Amino acid sequence: MIKLEGKVWKSNKGKYWIAYIEFLDINTQGISERDSLAMIKDAIESLINKKGFKITIKSIDGHKFSIGSSDTKTWLGFILQRLRMKAGLTIEEVARRMGSTSKNAYARYEHGKTIPGLDKLSQILEAIESKSETILKIAA
Q1: 140: which DSSP letter?
Q2: What is the pTM of this model?
Q3: Label partner for 13 (CA 20 to 30 A): which of 4, 70, 95, 100?
Q4: How many CA atoms lie within 13 A of 61 on its CB side?
Q5: pLDDT for 42-89, tens place per residue?
Q6: What is the third-level CATH fold of 72-138?
């Protein structure tokens, strides 16, 4: 299972709790810590918009949480899409950076049709975020 880490904290004004996943650049707020985590779960499931897709959230320690899904193809596809969009790239640009002449091979990963092997995933992440270090946690 691929998991991402998020943070949750009470706002400076003390009225709302904020949940944030930096890796995906997604944040929500709620009236309690539990509510803000439920909101971020709902936000991601709504963005993915696939019948039956579910996110799991688990508190780690303090104000951190992990988020993942047992539907690895869809989850990884969403992560790759968010990273690409965050970097301001098109599917064609990522494919070209990977040395591919066809955007369809890369698009299959984003659409959750197939899962790249670790070497290919490393190549994809390098093509998307060539100037920063990307850290994904993969749990058995």
Answers
A1: -
A2: 0.86
A3: 4
A4: 0
A5: 999 999 999 999 999 999 888 999 999 999 999 999 999 999 999 999
A6: 434 Repressor (Amino-terminal Domain) (1.10.260)
